[in-house]
Amino acid sequence: MDELELLENRLQRERLARKQAEALLEEKSETLYLLNQDLVKLAADLAEREEASRSILEATGDGIITLDESGRIDSFNRAAKGIFGYSQEQVVGQNIDKLFPMGITGEAFKNIPHMQDMERSGELHEATGRRADGSEFFMEISLSQGQLLQRRMIIVSVRDITQRKKAEEERKYMEIQLRQAQKLESIGQLAAGIAHEINTPIQFVGDNTRFLLDAFADIERLLSIYDQVLEAVRANEITEGLVTSVNSIANEIDLDYLRSEIPQAISQTLDGTDRVARIVRAMKEFSHPGDEAKSLIDINKAIQSTITVSRNEWKYDAELETDLDLTLPTVPCLASEFNQVILNIIVNAVHAIRDGKSDDSTAKGAILITTKQEGDWAKISIRDSGSGIPEAIRSKIFDPFFTTKGVGKGTGQGLAIAYSAIVDKHAGTIDVQSEVGVGTTFTIKLPMQG
Amino acid sequence: MKGVVFTEFLEYVEECYSPEMADKIIATSSLCSYGVYTSVGTYPHQELVKLISALSTETGRQVPDLIHAFGKHLFGRLIRIYPMFLTGFSSSFELLRSVQDQIHVKVRMLYPDAELPTFEYQSNHPDQLIIIYRSKRPFKDLAAGMIEGCIEHFGEAITLTWDSSVQPGDAGVRFVLERKA
Ligand SMILES: Nc1ncnc2c1ncn2[C@@H]1O[C@H](COP(=O)(O)OP(=O)(O)OP(=O)(O)O)[C@@H](O)[C@H]1O
Ligand SMILES: [Mg+2]
After folding, report:
1. Host domain of residue B20
2. Could you tell me if residue B68 is inside a domain?
3. A130: which of A148, A239, A268, A340 is 20 to 30 A away, CA to CA?
4. How high is the pLDDT of residue A109?
5. Which residues have CB under 6 Å of ligand 1?
6. ipTM, 2 decimals?
7. What is the A439 CA–ligand 1 centroid distance (Å)?
């Protein structure tokens, strides 16, 4: 092979190799161009998506704050600006504690799920926030997290609940007012009954006193003739006529009758005043004005006075009996609340008895109130022979405003008040057992150690 | 197989033997490429096998010896063409340990479709390095030559041994490098 041929071969190969390389280069360039196109489009898509996310973030009513793992603020959306009164520049890079004086780092951050656990979204916590002007407010926050490429992002979503808290407090206040109203209403109703109860003894006290006044006028006549007799005896001039006058006056005024009636009238009068005094005392005990703290009270006595003041409510419809455990120790109790509960249950019992009675029947129903010590509890049960509570509504009777009574007859508050008084305020229990057509028993248990 | 291996091989033959030898083995190997290679292209590795077999026939030297010798030469050439792969390494162990996670990664940036062998490292002694080499192609001699080229480059006293029995059923080759005391 000669030199020239060899060189030609090599040259040929080199030329072809160069063309090959050029073709490869073109191919690569095209691939690059296409890749670049894709990238441009991808970047535009990303920008659009980013814009969409940002708009959502800015539009949402909740404040959204993102933090890095050390609790430094990364971003702060518009609602957050509105809530806290800071601009983005004022808080980005700062620690989240700036916004939470009590520090959510303690309680709330403790619950941040572990890094790997990305699925978990945050529960709601209540926290106190601090605005740029230093004022503090209630808020609800929830924490969640997102995994970015290199790091974890903590997302704090914040809602100002000052308004809601205020509404809640207003509602609570209204409830208290309403309860007060119910109590006043029942006292008003009781007052009518009590007036009636007091009227009867007052009437016969009056009658008897008038009788005593008349009787005394008669006796006065007799006494003046006795004076004359006394004088005549002293002068030793007693006459037959004088004795006859005495006899005739005694006859006229019916002395025998007076002698037997006057002591009776006096004791009846005393009875009457006693009765009035008892009712007044019961009334006082029932309403127990102004005791806000628990004191040790005699449950039996409290029940007795409630029965007394409510007598007019039940006496036409029921025989009310008691079976009280007189050895029951005193129980720490809010007396007026407790009395109100017993009254509400008695009134319900009377309504149920009326409800269960056939129109023509005159037979009275029965209410039995018993007290008993059961371990560390004082147990009070109130049984009635009323219409009973259908199974279907038994779970609702303690709900506020649940009533089966017509407009103007019941507001559905009696048992709701009873429940909150016994369960919330005394840490006791209240239960009901009932059979339709047979009757109902409410059982209250109060802890003897307050 | 990357074109640079082919272009380097032909240059190597021209230098060590003669341009005529290169021309001859191309002519006798009946290659699809007709011996036209560019370093940025990719060609079937069987062409290299054919060229080396032809060289063996022409020279009477064993194929493994030829590949081994070329490997050694190739290492020296590659570090001249791609000096950036060397920077920061002061020993063959360091450089070899970087093959899998650094050098091959860079090769892939340039040639995403390159089919590279894998290197797995084992060692329980600072003076020993074990490399488990796996490749789809029968070029363990090329690898051995290149490793030797590397040792030579750093001028180190290291013995290289290898065997093919990594594990039963495993086609890998185990290279053991031991620094001489
Ligand atoms: N002893 C009872 N027997 C039968 N039903 C009862 C009895 N006590 C309560 N209920 C039922 O439970 C409902 C709720 O009672 P609750 O005392 O809370 O409200 P109310 O009596 O309807 O109204 P309020 O007590 O405010 O005047 C009653 O409407 C009635 O249907
Ligand atoms: Mg009621």
Report:
1. 3-61
2. no
3. A148
4. 53
5. A 344, 348-349, 352, 384, 386-389, 397, 402-405, 410-416, 440
6. 0.76
7. 13
CATH topology assigned to domain A194-287: Helix Hairpins (1.10.287)
DSSP 8-state secondary structure symbol assigned to residue A133: T
Contacts 24+ apart (CB under 8 A), A19-26: A20/B36, A20/B37, A20/B38, A20/B41, A21/B38, A21/B39, A21/B40, A21/B41, A24/B38, A24/B40, A24/B41, A25/B40
Q: For B111, name the nearest residue in chain A, comparing CA atoms only.
A: A28
Report the amino acid identity of residue A66: T
How far apart CA A92 and CA A76 sit, in angstroms, is 7
**Number of independent structural domains in chain B:** 2
Q: Are residues B110 and B51 in the same domain?
A: no
| Contact (CB<8Å) B41/A10 | no
Q: Are B162 and B174 in contact (CB under 8 A)?
A: yes
Residues B54, B94, single domain; the answer is no
A17-46 pLDDT per residue, tens: 889 888 888 888 888 899 999 999 999 999
Q: Are B97 and B169 members of one domain?
A: yes
Q: Do B56 and B121 belong together in one domain?
A: no
Handedness of CA A76, A77, A80, A84 (dihedral sign): positive
- Among A353, A355, A405, A420, which residue has the most ligand 1 atoms within 8 Å of its CB, making it the best to mutate? A405
Stated pTM of the model: 0.50
List of chain A residues whose C-beta atoms are within 8 Å of the C-beta of residue B23: 1, 6, 9-10
Distance, in Å, from the CA atom of A192 to the CA atom of B97, rounded to the nearest integer, reads: 104
Taking only the tens place, the pLDDT of each residue in A142-173 is 878 777 878 888 888 888 888 888 888 888 88
Q: For residues A229 and A237, is the Cβ–Cβ distance under 8 A?
A: no
Contacts of A16 in chain B (CB under 8 A): 34, 36
Q: Are A381 and A441 in contact (CB under 8 A)?
A: yes
Q: Ligand 1 centroid vs A410 CA: distance in angstroms?
A: 8
- Which residue owns the Cα nearest ligand 1 atom 20? A412
Q: Hey, is the C-beta of B64 within 8 angstroms of any chain A C-beta?
A: no
The structure tokens 């205020």 sit at A166
Domain edges within chain A: 59-160, 194-287, 289-450
E strand or H helix at B152: helix B140-154
B97/B148 same-domain check: yes
How confident is the model over A182-199, as pLDDT tens digits? Answer: 777 777 777 888 888 888
For chain B, the average pLDDT equals 89
Q: What is the mean pLDDT of residues B44-60?
A: 94
Measured distance CA(B119)–CA(B174) in Å, rounded:
10
B94 and B171 belong to one structural domain: yes
In a domain, B94, yes or no: yes
Residues of chain B contacting A1 with CB distance shorter than 8 Å: 20, 23-24
B54, B96: one domain = no
Reduced to 3 states (helix: H, G, I; strand: E, B; else coil), residue A150 is: coil
Residue B93 lies in a domain: yes
B53 & B99 share domain: no
Instruction: Indicate the fold that domain A289-450 takes in CATH.
Output: Heat Shock Protein 90 (3.30.565)
